[in-house]
Structure formats: structure tokens, C-alpha cells
């Protein structure tokens, strides 16, 4: 059992990374409190789709983080947490090889043009968690407050935060651009819509291709009586204003893949800004006699990396307890989605 740390560890941010990290630390026996500028259901995480799946990975640690997260999400599957294990297809309009991770998970099979929507020439099927983010974030909140506290507020600087708590965990997403400050962070705007489910029980997603950063994506994610349709990935844009012309194009692309969606009633629009970075940052630095553990820069893979990165943060906290010095920065740890 780790020693109690007075005062508690301070986690900054209550998106999926902040909540998951706080749950992981609190359930390991550490006293934890979360400080957040926005309630969990108003964070960027609440605007996510969200289909588990690693994309554009460069560092071996990220594959481990992704699979650790998939293991935990599968164990939590059910209505209470808003997680469903769904079969589906990822496809591309040109011939591309499947990513290695897809070939290693349940339900993997190759699909040819005859088994794909019109215009797609290569694809692969697999089974993965699909997460209803508002339900899931509420579940994480409920789980955390059994052991810790969530308080509304901000921190002026990491130095001020360390003056309050010996260990600070920075899960501020795009907010880290100002707080750290970290000019490597860039916004990537995302938009999606939620419609009534006309009878769809399999997901569909565009295949990501190394080196591409498309502004328009197509994905269909069934979540019980609703379906999430997406989406956009617009580098450099931070506007949270709904763009109805984009919503129209999203719907048109999704209807082209699955005509059942043509008459589906639109229930909700969501807009968010992904905190994109050339590398995911999960590392510990010493500051004014305290410790800051960074956990941000997940881009569109926040859910996919959440439990793996939280476990890494726990290991870094345990290093503080054992007196281990902070390791030098590993540099670029690339991921993107």
C-alpha cells in the first residue's frame, strides 16, 4: 500500500485522460483531487465518437497503452459504462495494407470490394469497443467520487499547482499549450452528429493512411438506439461553432455508405477540438521541489490511450515514492488520429 501523501495528488483536467488517471491513482490508494475548468460533460472528450483504435503510431509504448486500454474497456462493457463491443469494417478507397494491430484482435478478416460499400476497394473487419462518451464520463465521475473530490477552478501556473500539492498531474489537453507552455500543441477541430438508429449494428470507419491528414472523415458508430456519424479533422481550427454545411456533408457521406441513414432523425450535433501534438507527452519533470507528471497530447486517440497512459502515470507516481529521479525526456512519441 503506497504511503498517503499530504496534501493529495492534484490532477488538472476532467476529460477522459484526467478522469481515468484520477481513478487509477485513487484506486491504487493515493489521495487524489481533480481541479477542472469545465465539468466533464462539457470537455472535448464528451464530443468524441468514440471508436477504440490506434492510428499513426511511432513509439512502441503506444501499442502497449492502446491494448491495455482495450483490455480495460472490454472488462467494463455494458450499459452502465456506455461501452459496447461492436463488430465492423474499416475501409479505404485505394489499396492499403491493414495496420498490424488490427490483424491481432478479435474478428479480424480481410474484405474485398464486393464486401464493401461502393467506392471502397480494400478493407478489414474486426471487433472493438465503441464508447458512448457522455455515459462513460458520467460513469468515471461516479467511480472517482467514491474516493476523491472534483472541484471547479483553474491553476494560474504549474508552479502554483506544485505549491499546493507535491505531485501534480497535467491532463489539460489543448490547455497545456498555455499552461506548460507547449507550442507543439495544435488544435484539430472535429464535428459529428448523433441520429436515431435505423437498425445499424456494425461500425464503419475510413481507414487512416500514414502521412495523410484528411479534413473530412467518414465513420458510423452504433450506440444502442443512437448512431454517431462523423466527421471532420481540421488542423489549426479552434471554433466550437456548429457548421451546418459540414453537418450536411457528414450526413451525405454516411448515407452513401449506409442508405438506412437517409431518413434518420438528427438528435444532436457535437463540436470539439482535439489536442494534437507531434508526440504524446507522458513524463515526469521536477519543479520547485515538487513533481509534475504530464499526460496530454493524445490528439483524437484520448479514449484509445486512456487506461494505458493512466497506468504509466501511476508508475511514475510510484517512482516518486521510491525516490527515483525523473528520467530525461524521451523526445518524440508520435501518435495521431
Structural description of this entry:
This protein is of the alpha/beta class and 337 residues long. The protein has 2 domains: 197 residues, NAD(P)-binding Rossmann-like Domain (Rossmann fold), CATH 3.40.50.720; 136 residues, D-Amino Acid Oxidase, subunit A, domain 2 (D-Amino Acid Oxidase, Chain A, domain 2), CATH 3.30.9.10. Helices cover 27% and strands 29% of the residues. It has 8 helices and 15 strands. The strands form 2 sheets. Strands 3, 4, 5, 8, 9, 10, 11, 12 and 13 form a 9-stranded mixed sheet that branches. A 6-stranded mixed sheet has the order 6-2-1-7-15-14, with helices on both faces. Helix 1 links the parallel strand 1 and strand 2. Helix 1 runs parallel beside helix 4 and helix 1 runs parallel beside helix 8. The longest helix is centred in the last third of the chain and has 20 residues. The C terminus is likely disordered.
Amino acid at each position: 500500500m503506497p504511503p498517503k501523501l499530504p496534501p493529495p495528488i492534484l490532477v488538472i483536467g476532467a476529460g477522459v485522460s484526467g478522469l481515468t488517471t484520477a481513478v487509477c491513482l485513487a484506486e491504487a490508494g493515493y489521495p487524489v483531487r481533480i481541479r477542472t475548468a469545465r465539468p466533464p460533460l462539457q470537455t472535448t472528450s464528451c464530443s468524441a465518437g468514440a471508436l477504440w483504435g490506434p492510428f499513426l503510431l511511432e513509439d512502441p509504448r503506444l501499442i502497449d497503452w492502446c491494448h491495455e486500454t482495450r483490455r480495460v474497456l472490454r472488462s467494463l462493457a455494458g450499459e452502465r459504462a456506455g461501452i459496447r463491443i461492436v463488430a465492423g469494417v474499416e475501409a479505404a478507397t485505394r489499396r492499403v495494407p491493414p495496420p498490424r494491430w488490427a490483424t491481432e484482435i478479435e474478428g479480424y478478416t480481410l474484405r474485398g470490394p464486393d464486401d464493401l460499400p461502393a467506392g471502397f476497394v480494400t478493407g478489414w473487419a474486426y471487433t472493438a469497443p465503441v464508447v458512448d462518451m457522455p455515459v462513460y464520463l458520467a460513469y468515471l465521475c461516479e467511480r472517482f467520487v467514491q474516493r476523491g473530490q472534483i472541484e471547479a477552478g483553474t491553476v494560474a501556473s504549474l508552479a502554483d499547482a506544485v505549491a499546493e500539492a507535491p505531485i501534480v498531474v497535467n491532463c489539460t489537453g489543448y490547455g497545456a499549450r498555455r499552461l506548460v507552455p507547449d507550442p507543439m500543441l495544435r488544435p484539430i477541430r472535429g464535428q459529428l452528429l448523433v441520429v436515431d438508429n435505423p437498425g445499424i449494428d456494425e461500425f464503419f470507419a475510413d481507414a487512416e493512411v500514414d502521412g495523410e491528414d484528411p479534413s473530412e472523415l467518414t465513420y458510423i458508430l452504433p450506440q444502442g438506439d443512437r448512431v454517431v456519424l462523423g466527421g471532420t479533422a481540421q488542423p489549426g481550427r479552434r471554433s466550437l461553432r456548429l457548421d451546418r454545411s459540414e453537418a450536411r456533408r457528414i450526413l451525405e457521406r454516411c448515407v452513401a455508405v449506409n442508405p438506412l441513414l437517409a431518413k434518420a432523425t438528427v438528435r444532436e450535433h457535437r463540436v470539439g477540438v482535439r489536442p494534437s501534438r507531434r508526440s504524446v507527452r507522458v513524463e515526469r519533470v521536477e519543479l520547485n521541489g515538487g513533481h509534475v507528471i504530464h499526460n496530454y497530447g493524445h490528439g483524437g486517440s484520448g479514449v484509445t490511450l486512456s487506461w494505458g497512459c493512466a497506468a504509466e502515470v501511476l508508475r511514475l507516481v510510484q517512482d516518486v515514492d521510491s525516490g527515483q529521479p525523473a528520467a530525461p525526456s524521451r523526445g518524440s512519441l508520435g501518435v495521431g488520429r
